[in-house]
Amino acid sequence: MDPVKIVEGVYWVGALDFNVRNFHGYSYSTHHGTTYNAYLVVGEKVALVDAVNGSFSEEMFERISKVIDLSKIDYMISNHAEMDHSSTVPEVLKRVPNAKLVCTEKAVDVLKKHYPDGWDIQTVKTGDELDLGGKTLRFYEAPMLHWPESMFTYYIEEELLMPNDAFGQHYATEKRFADEVDQNVLWREAEKYYANILWPLSRMVQRKIEEVVELGLPIKIIAPSHGLIFRKDPLQIVTRYLEWAKGERISDKVVITWDTMWESTTKIARALAEGINDEGLTPLLRLIPHNDRSDIMADLLEAKGILVGSPTLHNEFLPTVAPIVSDLETLKPVGKKAAAFGSIGWRGGAAEKIQEYMKRGKMDVIMEPFTVAWVPTKEELEKAREYGREFARKVK
Ligand code: FEO
Protein backbone atom coordinates (compact mmCIF):
# COMPACT_ATOMS: atom_id res chain seq x y z
CA MET A 1 0.00 0.00 0.00
CA ASP A 2 1.21 3.47 -0.84
CA PRO A 3 1.51 6.36 1.58
CA VAL A 4 -1.66 8.46 1.72
CA LYS A 5 -1.57 12.22 1.42
CA ILE A 6 -3.64 13.74 4.25
CA VAL A 7 -3.04 17.43 3.44
CA GLU A 8 -0.30 19.22 1.54
CA GLY A 9 3.00 17.94 2.94
CA VAL A 10 1.53 15.41 5.39
CA TYR A 11 1.43 11.71 4.60
CA TRP A 12 0.06 8.69 6.42
CA VAL A 13 2.92 6.19 6.51
CA GLY A 14 1.56 3.81 9.16
CA ALA A 15 0.65 0.13 9.06
CA LEU A 16 -2.48 -2.00 8.78
CA ASP A 17 -2.89 -4.92 11.15
CA PHE A 18 -5.88 -6.85 9.86
CA ASN A 19 -5.18 -9.93 11.96
CA VAL A 20 -4.75 -8.75 15.53
CA ARG A 21 -7.68 -9.95 17.63
CA ASN A 22 -6.71 -8.80 21.10
CA PHE A 23 -5.11 -5.80 22.73
CA HIS A 24 -3.84 -4.86 26.16
CA GLY A 25 -3.22 -8.41 27.33
CA TYR A 26 -6.42 -9.97 26.00
CA SER A 27 -8.58 -7.44 27.86
CA TYR A 28 -9.77 -5.89 24.59
CA SER A 29 -11.02 -7.85 21.57
CA THR A 30 -10.21 -6.27 18.20
CA HIS A 31 -12.70 -7.91 15.84
CA HIS A 32 -11.76 -5.52 13.02
CA GLY A 33 -8.00 -5.53 13.62
CA THR A 34 -6.30 -2.17 14.01
CA THR A 35 -3.95 0.31 12.38
CA TYR A 36 -0.84 1.96 13.75
CA ASN A 37 -0.88 5.44 12.27
CA ALA A 38 2.36 7.31 11.69
CA TYR A 39 2.44 10.68 9.92
CA LEU A 40 5.25 12.19 7.93
CA VAL A 41 5.28 16.00 7.91
CA VAL A 42 7.48 17.29 5.09
CA GLY A 43 8.63 20.91 5.17
CA GLU A 44 12.17 22.15 4.60
CA LYS A 45 12.77 19.83 7.51
CA VAL A 46 10.96 16.54 8.05
CA ALA A 47 9.23 15.11 11.12
CA LEU A 48 7.85 11.62 11.63
CA VAL A 49 4.98 11.81 14.11
CA ASP A 50 4.74 8.48 15.95
CA ALA A 51 5.77 5.09 14.63
CA VAL A 52 4.25 1.63 14.35
CA ASN A 53 4.18 -1.65 16.22
CA GLY A 54 7.48 -3.53 15.93
CA SER A 55 6.61 -6.25 13.44
CA PHE A 56 5.30 -3.63 10.99
CA SER A 57 8.49 -1.56 10.78
CA GLU A 58 9.35 -2.55 7.20
CA GLU A 59 5.86 -1.60 6.07
CA MET A 60 6.34 1.87 7.56
CA PHE A 61 9.86 2.35 6.16
CA GLU A 62 8.66 1.31 2.70
CA ARG A 63 5.91 3.93 2.79
CA ILE A 64 8.27 6.62 4.06
CA SER A 65 10.74 5.84 1.30
CA LYS A 66 8.03 6.42 -1.31
CA VAL A 67 7.79 10.04 -0.08
CA ILE A 68 11.37 10.94 0.88
CA ASP A 69 14.74 9.39 1.44
CA LEU A 70 14.75 8.09 5.00
CA SER A 71 17.92 10.04 5.81
CA LYS A 72 15.97 13.29 5.43
CA ILE A 73 14.03 12.74 8.67
CA ASP A 74 15.10 15.42 11.17
CA TYR A 75 12.71 14.72 14.03
CA MET A 76 11.12 11.58 15.45
CA ILE A 77 8.16 12.82 17.47
CA SER A 78 6.88 10.40 20.07
CA ASN A 79 3.46 11.48 21.32
CA HIS A 80 3.10 8.39 23.49
CA ALA A 81 5.58 5.82 24.79
CA GLU A 82 3.36 2.72 24.67
CA MET A 83 4.98 0.05 22.53
CA ASP A 84 2.37 -0.12 19.77
CA HIS A 85 3.61 3.35 18.74
CA SER A 86 7.16 3.43 20.03
CA SER A 87 8.66 0.00 19.40
CA THR A 88 9.96 1.06 15.99
CA VAL A 89 11.36 4.36 17.29
CA PRO A 90 14.75 2.73 18.05
CA GLU A 91 14.93 1.42 14.48
CA VAL A 92 14.11 4.88 13.06
CA LEU A 93 16.85 6.45 15.18
CA LYS A 94 19.26 3.68 14.24
CA ARG A 95 18.67 4.19 10.52
CA VAL A 96 18.67 7.98 10.84
CA PRO A 97 21.24 8.63 13.61
CA ASN A 98 21.13 12.41 13.19
CA ALA A 99 17.38 12.60 13.84
CA LYS A 100 16.32 14.12 17.12
CA LEU A 101 13.74 12.43 19.34
CA VAL A 102 11.01 14.85 20.49
CA CYS A 103 8.79 13.95 23.46
CA THR A 104 7.54 15.24 26.80
CA GLU A 105 9.79 15.30 29.85
CA LYS A 106 7.71 12.52 31.38
CA ALA A 107 8.25 10.30 28.34
CA VAL A 108 12.03 10.35 28.58
CA ASP A 109 12.42 7.86 31.44
CA VAL A 110 9.72 5.59 30.04
CA LEU A 111 11.36 5.44 26.63
CA LYS A 112 14.80 4.93 28.18
CA LYS A 113 13.43 2.05 30.26
CA HIS A 114 11.95 0.41 27.18
CA TYR A 115 14.86 0.96 24.80
CA PRO A 116 18.60 1.57 24.88
CA ASP A 117 19.65 5.10 25.70
CA GLY A 118 21.96 7.36 23.73
CA TRP A 119 19.54 9.34 21.62
CA ASP A 120 19.54 13.07 21.05
CA ILE A 121 16.34 14.05 22.89
CA GLN A 122 14.46 17.36 22.83
CA THR A 123 11.73 17.62 25.43
CA VAL A 124 8.70 19.80 24.80
CA LYS A 125 5.84 21.18 26.84
CA THR A 126 2.48 22.74 26.03
CA GLY A 127 2.83 25.64 23.60
CA ASP A 128 6.32 24.75 22.36
CA GLU A 129 6.66 24.91 18.59
CA LEU A 130 8.90 23.23 16.07
CA ASP A 131 9.59 25.14 12.85
CA LEU A 132 10.02 22.77 9.93
CA GLY A 133 10.37 25.64 7.46
CA GLY A 134 6.96 26.62 6.18
CA LYS A 135 5.31 24.11 8.45
CA THR A 136 4.99 24.54 12.19
CA LEU A 137 4.20 21.89 14.77
CA ARG A 138 2.92 22.89 18.19
CA PHE A 139 2.75 20.52 21.14
CA TYR A 140 0.11 20.10 23.84
CA GLU A 141 0.74 17.90 26.83
CA ALA A 142 -2.26 15.63 27.36
CA PRO A 143 -1.60 13.78 30.60
CA MET A 144 -3.84 10.73 31.10
CA LEU A 145 -5.07 10.75 27.52
CA HIS A 146 -4.26 8.09 28.11
CA TRP A 147 -0.85 7.93 29.85
CA PRO A 148 0.83 10.59 31.98
CA GLU A 149 3.42 11.31 29.27
CA SER A 150 0.92 11.56 26.37
CA MET A 151 0.89 14.63 24.17
CA PHE A 152 -0.87 15.95 21.07
CA THR A 153 0.97 17.34 18.04
CA TYR A 154 -0.80 20.10 16.13
CA TYR A 155 0.20 21.20 12.64
CA ILE A 156 -0.70 24.87 12.75
CA GLU A 157 -0.90 25.87 9.07
CA GLU A 158 -3.28 23.05 8.12
CA GLU A 159 -5.13 22.93 11.48
CA LEU A 160 -4.38 19.23 11.75
CA LEU A 161 -4.44 17.60 15.19
CA MET A 162 -2.50 14.38 15.78
CA PRO A 163 -3.69 13.35 19.26
CA ASN A 164 -2.24 9.84 19.28
CA ASP A 165 -4.53 7.39 21.13
CA ALA A 166 -7.29 9.94 21.81
CA PHE A 167 -10.20 9.70 19.34
CA GLY A 168 -8.95 6.38 17.93
CA GLN A 169 -10.71 3.19 16.93
CA HIS A 170 -9.37 -0.33 16.40
CA TYR A 171 -10.51 -0.69 12.80
CA ALA A 172 -8.27 -1.87 9.96
CA THR A 173 -9.41 -1.02 6.46
CA GLU A 174 -7.83 0.04 3.18
CA LYS A 175 -9.64 3.36 3.62
CA ARG A 176 -7.97 6.09 5.63
CA PHE A 177 -10.78 8.55 6.28
CA ALA A 178 -13.76 8.15 8.58
CA ASP A 179 -16.20 9.39 5.93
CA GLU A 180 -15.22 6.50 3.61
CA VAL A 181 -16.19 3.57 5.82
CA ASP A 182 -19.24 1.87 7.31
CA GLN A 183 -20.44 4.39 9.91
CA ASN A 184 -21.95 1.72 12.17
CA VAL A 185 -18.62 -0.07 12.47
CA LEU A 186 -16.73 3.21 12.87
CA TRP A 187 -18.84 4.52 15.74
CA ARG A 188 -19.16 1.14 17.43
CA GLU A 189 -15.36 0.85 17.42
CA ALA A 190 -15.03 4.43 18.70
CA GLU A 191 -17.47 3.64 21.54
CA LYS A 192 -15.65 0.44 22.39
CA TYR A 193 -12.33 2.28 22.42
CA TYR A 194 -13.64 4.96 24.77
CA ALA A 195 -15.34 2.47 27.09
CA ASN A 196 -12.33 0.19 27.45
CA ILE A 197 -9.49 2.71 27.45
CA LEU A 198 -10.74 6.15 28.42
CA TRP A 199 -13.81 5.61 30.61
CA PRO A 200 -11.86 5.57 33.90
CA LEU A 201 -10.13 8.79 32.78
CA SER A 202 -13.33 10.65 31.96
CA ARG A 203 -12.66 13.61 34.26
CA MET A 204 -9.29 14.22 32.60
CA VAL A 205 -10.85 13.77 29.14
CA GLN A 206 -13.48 16.38 29.95
CA ARG A 207 -10.91 18.81 31.36
CA LYS A 208 -8.55 18.47 28.38
CA ILE A 209 -11.30 18.92 25.81
CA GLU A 210 -12.66 21.96 27.61
CA GLU A 211 -9.12 23.38 27.77
CA VAL A 212 -8.65 22.91 24.00
CA VAL A 213 -12.08 24.44 23.32
CA GLU A 214 -11.14 27.46 25.48
CA LEU A 215 -7.95 27.90 23.47
CA GLY A 216 -10.13 28.26 20.40
CA LEU A 217 -7.84 25.93 18.51
CA PRO A 218 -9.19 25.62 14.97
CA ILE A 219 -9.30 21.97 13.92
CA LYS A 220 -9.92 20.85 10.34
CA ILE A 221 -8.66 17.30 10.67
CA ILE A 222 -8.18 14.89 13.56
CA ALA A 223 -5.66 12.17 12.79
CA PRO A 224 -5.44 9.67 15.66
CA SER A 225 -2.91 6.87 16.04
CA HIS A 226 -5.42 4.05 15.51
CA GLY A 227 -8.11 3.72 12.89
CA LEU A 228 -9.66 6.33 10.65
CA ILE A 229 -8.91 10.02 10.21
CA PHE A 230 -11.73 12.53 10.74
CA ARG A 231 -11.76 15.20 8.01
CA LYS A 232 -15.51 15.87 7.61
CA ASP A 233 -17.06 17.38 10.71
CA PRO A 234 -14.03 16.36 12.82
CA LEU A 235 -15.50 17.86 15.97
CA GLN A 236 -18.18 15.17 15.95
CA ILE A 237 -15.79 12.75 17.69
CA VAL A 238 -14.78 15.48 20.16
CA THR A 239 -18.43 16.15 21.00
CA ARG A 240 -19.06 12.43 21.55
CA TYR A 241 -16.03 12.19 23.84
CA LEU A 242 -17.38 15.06 25.89
CA GLU A 243 -20.83 13.44 26.08
CA TRP A 244 -19.35 10.06 27.04
CA ALA A 245 -17.11 11.69 29.64
CA LYS A 246 -20.09 13.45 31.21
CA GLY A 247 -22.41 10.42 30.85
CA GLU A 248 -24.78 12.51 28.76
CA ARG A 249 -25.16 10.31 25.69
CA ILE A 250 -27.68 7.72 26.82
CA SER A 251 -29.89 5.37 24.78
CA ASP A 252 -33.00 3.43 25.87
CA LYS A 253 -30.98 0.25 26.42
CA VAL A 254 -30.37 -1.78 29.55
CA VAL A 255 -27.57 -4.39 29.51
CA ILE A 256 -28.35 -7.74 31.10
CA THR A 257 -25.27 -9.91 31.29
CA TRP A 258 -24.88 -13.19 33.12
CA ASP A 259 -23.58 -16.72 33.16
CA THR A 260 -25.49 -19.75 34.31
CA MET A 261 -24.83 -23.22 35.70
CA TRP A 262 -28.13 -25.13 35.34
CA GLU A 263 -30.13 -22.47 33.45
CA SER A 264 -31.85 -20.98 36.53
CA THR A 265 -29.96 -17.68 36.19
CA THR A 266 -30.79 -17.65 32.49
CA LYS A 267 -34.50 -17.98 33.35
CA ILE A 268 -34.20 -15.03 35.73
CA ALA A 269 -32.33 -12.98 33.09
CA ARG A 270 -35.11 -13.55 30.57
CA ALA A 271 -37.80 -12.56 33.08
CA LEU A 272 -35.85 -9.38 33.91
CA ALA A 273 -35.66 -8.62 30.19
CA GLU A 274 -39.43 -9.01 29.84
CA GLY A 275 -39.94 -6.55 32.68
CA ILE A 276 -37.59 -4.01 31.14
CA ASN A 277 -39.33 -4.42 27.80
CA ASP A 278 -42.73 -3.94 29.54
CA GLU A 279 -41.57 -0.45 30.54
CA GLY A 280 -40.60 0.49 26.99
CA LEU A 281 -36.83 0.13 27.33
CA THR A 282 -34.66 -2.18 25.25
CA PRO A 283 -32.88 -5.03 27.04
CA LEU A 284 -29.56 -6.18 25.57
CA LEU A 285 -29.12 -9.82 26.62
CA ARG A 286 -25.45 -10.79 26.78
CA LEU A 287 -24.73 -14.33 27.96
CA ILE A 288 -21.12 -14.04 29.09
CA PRO A 289 -19.44 -17.03 27.40
CA HIS A 290 -20.72 -15.79 24.05
CA ASN A 291 -19.96 -12.09 24.57
CA ASP A 292 -16.55 -10.85 25.61
CA ARG A 293 -15.91 -8.29 28.29
CA SER A 294 -14.83 -5.43 26.04
CA ASP A 295 -17.96 -5.74 23.87
CA ILE A 296 -20.15 -5.70 26.96
CA MET A 297 -18.40 -2.56 28.24
CA ALA A 298 -19.02 -0.96 24.84
CA ASP A 299 -22.71 -1.89 25.15
CA LEU A 300 -22.79 -0.28 28.58
CA LEU A 301 -21.28 3.06 27.52
CA GLU A 302 -24.56 4.54 26.26
CA ALA A 303 -26.95 2.24 28.18
CA LYS A 304 -29.19 3.42 31.00
CA GLY A 305 -27.92 0.70 33.30
CA ILE A 306 -26.77 -2.86 33.78
CA LEU A 307 -27.94 -6.01 35.54
CA VAL A 308 -25.23 -8.60 36.17
CA GLY A 309 -26.11 -12.17 37.10
CA SER A 310 -24.35 -15.23 38.38
CA PRO A 311 -25.20 -18.37 40.30
CA THR A 312 -23.20 -18.82 43.49
CA LEU A 313 -20.23 -21.17 43.35
CA HIS A 314 -18.05 -21.55 46.46
CA ASN A 315 -19.75 -18.46 47.93
CA GLU A 316 -18.61 -16.44 44.90
CA PHE A 317 -19.72 -15.51 41.40
CA LEU A 318 -18.67 -17.81 38.58
CA PRO A 319 -15.10 -17.34 37.29
CA THR A 320 -16.52 -16.53 33.85
CA VAL A 321 -18.31 -13.51 35.34
CA ALA A 322 -15.15 -12.23 37.05
CA PRO A 323 -13.80 -10.23 34.04
CA ILE A 324 -17.03 -8.25 33.77
CA VAL A 325 -17.15 -7.58 37.49
CA SER A 326 -13.50 -6.53 37.41
CA ASP A 327 -14.17 -4.15 34.51
CA LEU A 328 -17.08 -2.58 36.39
CA GLU A 329 -14.71 -1.86 39.25
CA THR A 330 -11.72 -0.66 37.24
CA LEU A 331 -13.28 1.10 34.23
CA LYS A 332 -15.41 3.06 36.70
CA PRO A 333 -18.68 3.67 34.86
CA VAL A 334 -19.38 6.38 37.44
CA GLY A 335 -23.07 6.89 38.20
CA LYS A 336 -24.28 4.15 35.86
CA LYS A 337 -27.34 2.46 37.43
CA ALA A 338 -26.77 -1.16 38.36
CA ALA A 339 -27.95 -4.20 40.28
CA ALA A 340 -27.12 -7.93 40.46
CA PHE A 341 -29.10 -11.15 40.36
CA GLY A 342 -28.71 -14.91 40.33
CA SER A 343 -29.84 -18.27 41.57
CA ILE A 344 -28.41 -19.66 44.77
CA GLY A 345 -28.00 -23.21 46.10
CA TRP A 346 -27.16 -24.24 49.64
CA ARG A 347 -25.56 -20.85 50.07
CA GLY A 348 -25.73 -17.47 48.35
CA GLY A 349 -23.29 -14.59 48.05
CA ALA A 350 -22.55 -14.08 44.34
CA ALA A 351 -25.00 -11.24 43.68
CA GLU A 352 -24.02 -9.42 46.88
CA LYS A 353 -20.34 -9.64 45.93
CA ILE A 354 -21.06 -8.37 42.41
CA GLN A 355 -22.76 -5.34 43.94
CA GLU A 356 -19.73 -4.69 46.14
CA TYR A 357 -17.55 -4.47 43.02
CA MET A 358 -20.11 -2.20 41.36
CA LYS A 359 -19.96 0.16 44.33
CA ARG A 360 -16.15 0.18 44.21
CA GLY A 361 -16.50 1.28 40.58
CA LYS A 362 -18.62 4.23 41.82
CA MET A 363 -21.69 2.82 40.11
CA ASP A 364 -25.15 3.72 41.36
CA VAL A 365 -26.49 0.44 42.79
CA ILE A 366 -30.19 1.18 42.94
CA MET A 367 -31.77 -2.08 44.14
CA GLU A 368 -31.05 -4.96 46.50
CA PRO A 369 -29.85 -8.08 44.67
CA PHE A 370 -32.53 -10.33 43.20
CA THR A 371 -31.93 -13.96 44.12
CA VAL A 372 -33.90 -17.20 43.90
CA ALA A 373 -33.10 -20.51 45.57
CA TRP A 374 -32.47 -23.41 43.19
CA VAL A 375 -34.84 -23.34 40.22
CA PRO A 376 -37.21 -20.35 39.94
CA THR A 377 -40.93 -21.11 40.21
CA LYS A 378 -43.55 -19.46 38.03
CA GLU A 379 -44.28 -17.03 40.86
CA GLU A 380 -40.60 -16.22 41.32
CA LEU A 381 -40.23 -15.56 37.61
CA GLU A 382 -43.13 -13.13 37.84
CA LYS A 383 -41.29 -11.42 40.72
CA ALA A 384 -38.18 -11.25 38.52
CA ARG A 385 -40.25 -9.64 35.78
CA GLU A 386 -41.56 -7.08 38.26
CA TYR A 387 -37.98 -6.47 39.44
CA GLY A 388 -37.09 -5.74 35.80
CA ARG A 389 -40.02 -3.31 35.53
CA GLU A 390 -38.97 -1.52 38.71
CA PHE A 391 -35.35 -1.31 37.56
CA ALA A 392 -36.56 0.18 34.27
CA ARG A 393 -38.75 2.73 36.04
CA LYS A 394 -35.83 3.80 38.22
CA VAL A 395 -33.41 4.26 35.28
CA LYS A 396 -35.80 6.03 32.92
FE1 FEO B 1 -1.65 3.61 24.42
FE2 FEO B 1 -2.15 2.84 21.11
O1 FEO B 1 -1.22 2.85 22.75
Description:
Helices cover 34% and strands 22% of the residues. It is built from twelve helices and 22 strands. It folds into two domains: 4-246, Ribonuclease Z/Hydroxyacylglutathione hydrolase-like (Metallo-beta-lactamase, Chain A, 4-Layer Sandwich), CATH 3.60.15.10; 253-395, 3-Layer(aba) Sandwich (Rossmann fold). Strand 20 (337-344), helix 11 and strand 21 form a beta-alpha-beta unit. The chain is of the alpha/beta class and 396 residues long. A seven-stranded mixed sheet has the order 1-2-7-8-9-10-11. Helix 5 (183-198) crosses helix 9. Residues 80, 82, 84-85, 146, 165, 225-226 line the site of MU-OXO-diiron.
Strand content: 15-25%
Mean pLDDT: 96
What are the distinct ligands in this entry? MU-OXO-diiron
| Secondary structure: helix percent | 25-40%
Work out the oligomeric state of the chains in this entry: single chain
Q: Specify the CATH homologous superfamily of the largest domain.
A: Ribonuclease Z/Hydroxyacylglutathione hydrolase-like
Number of helices: 12
Number of strands: 22
Structural class label: alpha/beta
Brief digest:
Helix content is 34%, strand content 22%. It is built from twelve helices and 22 strands. The chain has helices spanning 57-65, 83-86, 89-95, 105-114, 183-198, 202-215, 235-246, 264-278, 293-301, 322-330, 350-360, 378-395; strands spanning 4-7, 10-12, 15-17, 22-23, 28-29, 34-36, 39-42, 46-49, 73-77, 100-104, 121-124, 129-131, 136-141, 151-155, 160-162, 221-222, 253-258, 282-287, 305-309, 337-344, 364-365, 370-373.
